[in-house]
Amino acid sequence: MILTGPAIKSAVKSGDVALEPFDETDLNPNSYNYHLADSLLVLGFGGKLARKISLSSEGFILKPGKVYLGATLERIGSDRYVTLLLGRSSIGRLGIFLNVTADLGHLGSCSHWTLELTVVQPVRVYPKMKIGQVSFWLTDGSSSHRYAGRYHCDSQPVGNRDRTITRKAR
Predict the structure, then answer these.
(1) Please, are residues 33 and 88 in contact by the beta-carbon 8 Å criterion?
(2) What global pTM score does this model have?
(3) Is-catalytic flag, 58?
(4) Can you say how many angstroms the Cα of residue 63 is from the centroid of all Cα atoms in its chain?
(5) Which end of the chain is more exposed for a tag (fewer CB within 10 A), N or C?
(6) 53 Cβ contact partners less than 8 Å away, ≥ 6 residues apart
(7) What is the DSSP letter of 124?
(8) 20, 24, 58, 116: the active-site residue
């Protein structure tokens, strides 16, 4: 079962959902709009960090053929609901692919989520722009496990922490 906008608002007020900062105007019928934080990592060959970019009010032009890691401005998560990070149709129509492979947030995970961004044409992005949306889903069945993995409690974009994958890419 997916939470509606009013249910998301209620879950934030009760503490069942973390959305910080929270702005009621970013509620949608079944999701919440999240924003791009103020820095990007540009990845090079094998997922190695090539450079860090601080976004200014003039923005930054993303270029095809590169992988950029950003982060959500908001800290997002829940011990009760599974989060699903989605793109916004208006962003997709600009040619930005957002989190094509990593959109699921497990129970207990709460972070400024790392966002994987690629583009098919040059596109300018800005800090605090609405970049995606998050939905919250109630689970069916019991789970004694809460996420405590490699990508937990991050506050900025984070590169690949899987040593077996990065070792093979060399």
Answers:
(1) yes
(2) 0.84
(3) no
(4) 20
(5) C
(6) 39, 40, 41, 42, 60
(7) E
(8) 116
